[in-house]
Write a structure and sequence with these properties.
Number of helices: 5
Shape: flat
Helix content: over 70%
Length: 148
């Protein structure tokens, strides 16, 4: 159910932005607020998954969710900070849409497989690829503005 809700709410989030742009109701504050609420919802979801994995499997598997949470935050932060310095930074494999899909699939497969393994694998994929994306963004910014 959680995976389905994540997909449904993400679809609604995309529709609301599309409607605002289509009807010329977008604003800078609206874009800012949308980004902030996106971060809150994603971090709450990943924290809940971390707690679930910790309670069912213990510390070691829940660390993948902690890594996914950190990577997710750093992907968003590196982009925002880069753009604040005037460098466009949309590179990388694990941006928000990809993280939403992987998280949703992991959640949906848990009851179908009678195992938390799909969720652990999903968190591992996000942890590894999102942190690699953050590192790629750091290198991208360094290349584009130098290291001064």
């Amino acid at each position: 159910m959680g995976g389905t809700l994540i997909l449904a709410f993400s679809a609604l989030d995309m529709v609301d932005g599309y409607m605002a742009r289509t009807h010329h109701l977008e604003s800078r504050f609206g874009a800012f607020l949308d980004s902030v609420t996106d971060r809150y919802s994603e971090l709450a979801t990943l924290f809940a998954i971390h707690a679930y994995l910790f309670s069912t499997n213990g510390l070691w598997t829940s660390l993948w969710a902690a890594g996914a949470l950190m990577g997710s935050l750093m992907v968003s932060y590196t982009r925002a900070r880069a753009e604040g310095l005037g460098v466009e930074c949309k590179i990388g494999l694990m941006q928000r849409p990809e993280r939403v899909v992987v998280t949703s699939l992991g959640c949906i497969l848990v009851p179908l497989c009678y195992s938390t393994l799909p969720l652990v694998i999903a968190m591992a994929i996000i942890a590894i690829l999102s942190n690699l994306t953050a590192v790629a963004r750091i290198l991208h910014v360094s290349k584009n503005i130098g290291n001064y």
